[in-house]
Structure to design on (98 residues):
């Protein structure tokens, strides 16, 4: 019972993230380079007023990292295959001397 009461008390002390805060958060995310910096600030800052924003920023960075990794793997697989096909198409030994 005491653990449950402590959980409720810790949730009461944290301010709710209101609509205005989320609107400003989304506006900041529209600004190039500032959005990346702010995601890191919100994720790694210890004195954030809004824990929900911290978790949202952390999840956004994790999803962005996953997408970058998937794109990197796809480029590595299909890019090498494409380059190899193009290099065989223009093989200089196949060019006839006139």
């Amino acid at each position: 019972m005491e653990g449950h009461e402590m959980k409720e008390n810790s949730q009461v002390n944290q301010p709710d993230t209101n609509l205005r805060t989320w609107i400003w958060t989304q506006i900041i995310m529209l600004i190039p380079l500032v959005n990346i910096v702010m995601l890191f600030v919100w994720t790694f800052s210890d004195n954030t007023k809004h824990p929900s924003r911290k978790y949202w920023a952390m999840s956004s960075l994790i999803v962005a990292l996953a997408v970058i990794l998937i794109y990197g793997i796809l480029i590595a697989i299909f890019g090498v295959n494409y380059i190899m096909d193009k290099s065989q198409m223009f093989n200089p030994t196949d060019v006839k001397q006139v």
Remarks:
- The two ends are 92 Å apart (CA to CA).
- The chain is about 75% helix and 0% strand.
- The chain has one domain: 15-86.
